[in-house]
Amino acid sequence: MSQLPLREPDFLAFDLPLGTSFDKAQRIADFMNQNLLYVSICRFGDAEDAVRDVALSERSDDSARFFHVICDLKTKLEAGDMVGAINSIKSVEYLAGELVRQWRKALGLAREILRKFGQDKDPDALV
User: Fold this and answer.
1) What is d(CA 127, CA 47) in angstroms, rounded to the nearest whole number?
2) Other C-beta atoms lying within 10 Å of the C-beta of residue 94
3) What confidence tens digit (pLDDT) does each residue in 43-64 have?
4) 87-112: per-residue pLDDT in tens?
5) Residue 1 near residue 40 (C-beta atoms within 8 A)
6) DSSP 3-state assignment of 16?
7) Buried b / exposed e across 21-59, counting CB within 10 Å, b at 16+?
């Protein structure tokens, strides 16, 4: 089980029954704030989880971010702004590292899917 902080645009929400009054909702929130230490999500690694993970991975447009930092670096170099270019290089390094980490995670997920469902099975059966 992992303990990861919520990050934008992630959020944690609880649905209350229709008609719940504001006062009752506040009492529920107060109870939870006073009595809950952690909220855990247990995943069982099936094909539905894999499909969900792929769908959620589409939330961030990493190719656009990478294009932007490269263009920013190019602009700063063309302008002779070496201090700005050095800062842009740091952005490129960071984003490249993030992309490599995400690819590593994607490859790990693919390996797990193959391990669980077998390499000889129809890949379309996972969808």
Assistant:
1) 7
2) 11
3) 555 566 666 666 666 555 677 7
4) 888 888 888 888 888 888 888 888 88
5) yes
6) coil
7) eeeeeeeeeeeeeeeeeeeeeeeeeeeeebeeeeeeeee
In DSSP notation, 55-97 reads HHHTTS-HHHHHHHHHHHHHHHHHTT-HHHHHHHHHHHHHHHH
Q: pTM of this prediction?
A: 0.42
What is the rounded CA–CA span in Å between residue 127 and residue 124?
A: 6
Amino acid letter, residue 80: G
Averaged over 64-80, what is the pLDDT?
Answer: 86
